[in-house]
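Consider this one:
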Amino acid sequence: MSSDDAIRATNDDASHCKRFAVQQGYWKDPYIQYFVRSSERKAPEINRGYYARTHGVKALLYKFLNLTKCNCQVVNLGAGSDTTFWLLQDEGLVPKRFIEADFHAVTSKKCHLIKSRKPLLEKIATEDDDIQFNNFDLHAKNYHIVGVDMRNLTDFKQKLKESDVDFNLPTIFLAECVLVYMESEKSATLLKWITEHFTAAYFISYEQVNMTDRFGQVMLDNLRVRQCPLAGVDACASMETQENRFLSTGWDSATALLMTEVYALLPQVEIQRIEKLEFLDETELLTQLFQHYCICWACKDSGDIGLRTLNFDTP
């Protein structure tokens, strides 16, 4: 298996973990069943971890949508089997443009599943709007899937152009364990290009951190066994290196929070509910996992529309 194949396999792993958490009642997602079959049991620590990951990213995304009143774009990097577009449709929070980018093998499968499943397709199609499919891409009125290797910036720029991206529209970029699989110079080039071309940009990255300690080294060893090295692991050494990845490439501000802190900032009524779903005898492993993942958000706000105020404390 090549390293790229191993990276693509991480999408399948994450999708199965999310599917099982949904099956167990951690959150509602009526669309994930169309992308992922029933999944085998996962440990309670994994389920709580994915709850924190999903809802941590969602909290910041919804604040961005509310600030911009959905007059914005969402670019989901390494989107995989993500269902956010459909969930936003159900909540009446549809941005002007929603673009997903991933490896060709991933987008090809997703396009096929959308085309063959009516509950997915009918949320994209409108009576006066044709959907354009090819082997790897989908283009509809406000939803686009593009197959591309994001390490190739020239190709990525072309795919955004084909998706009618508007550089003057506030744009949020989502990346869950994506930048870490890119060589540091490649991700730096991408991040710098974003700040140079979008007038208002917000970036949410969920990723590993504190990877130089013993627990982090065990995580790295496990990934190496799977032939899945983290090419950009240098940025995952500490909270400071996570933030500096953005600050050194032209972003106005960057803030990283450990998942222990994110978990504590999520609505506590919901936390109490999910903690009753499965018995967790020992919390040490969950704490260690939370201490080795973080959410980092950054903004470039040339028009001063208020992006710097968006954080977990924002109403």
Remarks:
- The beta strands are 73-77, 97-102, 132-133, 138-139, 143-147, 171-176, 200-208, 253-258, 293-301.
- The longest strand covers residues 200-208.
